[in-house]
Amino acid sequence: SQDVQVVVLKLNQNGGLTEMGWESWTDDDRGDIDWKSDRNSLDVAVGDFNGDATDEIAVAFRDHSHALQVMQVVYDPSGDTVNARVNSTGWWRDTGHGRGDVASVSVAAGDIDNDGNAEIISAFADSSNHLGVVTLDAATDSPTLRGSYGSGSGALSYVSFFDVQAGDIDGQGKVEVVIVFDDDDFKLEVVSFDDNPDCPCDDDASSGLVRRSGWTLANQYVAPYGIALGDV
């Protein structure tokens, strides 16, 4: 296990980066990461989760017991030292629905419910390589579950490498969730999801996201990759 450390850097107008603050967490409940060399055990995203016009930081990782954990981190410029300027305000952790033994994680941020605040979207592969996704509201100090999506034994039931992003891909002014992954035949797949407007909803229903479309690159073996969204 390794400690989670977050460093905030500023790009200067004349070039170069300046360290603005940092913090590390060593306790089991918050910040003790179980690192796997062949998978992504940690990912980070930024977004304005509470509507204060300042971005917060979301850190998703496989913790000391292999469970999915999502920590919210803020930068506080009033801190007396660089070590005091970066602080965790709270975290979300769950061991149900395959989240107690995850193989890898990815995280993104976006306003998927169109309420003016970004939500945290974390995708993960469980110990059976089933794809799972949780969406979290983070307007308060500790993130809370908004909805979930679990592939189980149906479609998207086997993923290896994967990545998640959030953005308005159809130009309708609302953010969608997009996931890219290797399927069980090592083909590249891209799937998009809409937020369920009835959420926050029952975690057991696995209906926090509604699958809307997909694309497959057939007849071609693919290795690790990433995904980005933008108006190109």
How would you describe this protein?
The structure is a single chain. The chain contains no helices and 15 strands. The chain is an all-beta fold. The chain has one domain (2-217): 7 Propeller (Methylamine Dehydrogenase, Chain H), CATH 2.130.10. The N and C termini lie far apart (40 Å). 0% of the residues lie in helices and 48% in strands.
Helices and strands in order, then pairings?
Layout: E1 2-11, E2 17-25, E3 32-33, E4 42-47, E5 56-62, E6 68-75, E7 86-94, E8 102-110, E9 119-126, E10 131-137, E11 144-150, E12 162-167, E13 176-182, E14 188-195, E15 209-217
Antiparallel strand pairs: 1-2, 1-3, 4-5, 5-6, 6-7, 8-9, 9-10, 10-11, 12-13, 13-14, 14-15
Could you write a compact summary of the structure shown?
The protein is mainly β.
Distance between the termini: 40 Å
User: For the record, what is the CATH homologous superfamily label?
Assistant: Integrin alpha, N-terminal
CATH topology: Methylamine Dehydrogenase, Chain H
Beta-strand segment tally: 15
How would you sum up the major sheet? 4 strands, antiparallel
Order of helices and strands: EEEEEEEEEEEEEEE
Architecture per CATH nomenclature, i.e. the level-2 architecture: 7 Propeller
Query: pLDDT under 50 segments (min length 5)?
Result: none
Taking all Cα atoms into account, the compactness measure Rg is 18 Å
Overall pLDDT confidence: 87
Helix share of residues? under 10%
CATH class: Mainly Beta
Strand order of the largest sheet: 4-5-6-7
Tally of contiguous helical segments: 0
Judging from the principal axes of the Cα atoms, what is the shape? Answer: globular
What structural class do you assign from the helix and strand content?
A: mainly beta
Question: What proportion strand?
Answer: over 45%
Number of domains: 1
